[in-house]
Amino acid sequence: MRAERKEPIIAPSLLSADPLFLGEAVGSLENETNWLHLDIMDGHFVPNLSYGPALVRSLREACGEAFLDVHLMVEKPELLVRRFAEAGADYLTVHVEATPHLHRVLGMIKDEGKKPGVTLNPGTPTEWLKPVLHMVDIVLVMSVNPGFGGQAFIPETLEKVESLFRWREARGLSYLIEIDGGLGLDTVERAVLAGCDVIVAGSAIFGAKDPADMVRALRRRALEAIRS
């Protein structure tokens, strides 16, 4: 018998917001969610470049109660952990593929007083995470190849979510299961039914006429799925 499911969290991804109007984009959410997802890209681990610690610090100052969910799509994340922790990140998620010292990096995040997380790409076996699952507060499954917004959802990644859900119950762990990439009204149900707790959505939210209403619609559809 599965454990009782909590209300899924909708985490808007600021990568899909207009970078000239990030403040307005956050305001357009109308406090419908207290999570903000930030993709940090270094131009090496993924081909794009994005934000740095300065944006995280500004968001922390402007949105004091928000959970800043910072996803480090970077090589050698150990070199950046302290800077993003000091800037005000709540969750710091690093890729299993990005460092040979994953255990050490997760320990560094914990030592900084932040919630450590681990991420895996669509082509990475879920089994690579087993040795560190006891150390993390969140596991992020990429349902697109990282580096660009607006990609199509890869349905095979839901098998990873299902495995993570089973392992969590079997081992009595409490990490959140997060998914990022191609999430919208047509995919959110499948994601939460597979076991996701946190839904990252970028284009679906910030490409909508009313971002706050889209957050409500995603939450409503997710709740309907787990209650049906």
Given the helix and strand composition, which structural class is it? alpha/beta
Query: How large is the radius of gyration?
Result: 16 Å
Q: Main beta sheet, described? A: 8 strands, parallel
Strand content is 15-25%
Order of helices and strands: EHEHEHEHEEHEHEHH
Question: What's the mean pLDDT score?
Answer: 94
Which residues form runs of ≥5 with pLDDT under 50?
none
User: DSSP helix count?
Assistant: 8
Shape: globular
Annotation, overall tally of beta strands: 8
As a percent range, the share of helical residues equals: 25-40%
Biggest β-sheet: strands ordered side by side in the sheet:
1-8-7-6-5-4-3-2
End-to-end C-alpha gap: 16 Å
Summarize the structure in words.
With 228 residues, the protein is an alpha/beta fold. Helix content is 33%, strand content 19%. It has helices at 22-27, 53-62, 81-87, 102-111, 158-171, 188-194, 203-206, 211-227; strands at residues 9-12, 35-41, 67-73, 91-95, 115-120, 138-142, 176-180, 198-201. Strands 1-8-7-6-5-4-3-2 form an eight-stranded parallel β-sheet. α2 (53-62) runs parallel beside α3 (81-87) and α6 (188-194) crosses α8. The longest helix has 17 residues, at 211-227. The protein is globular, with a radius of gyration of 16 Å. The two termini are 16 Å apart.
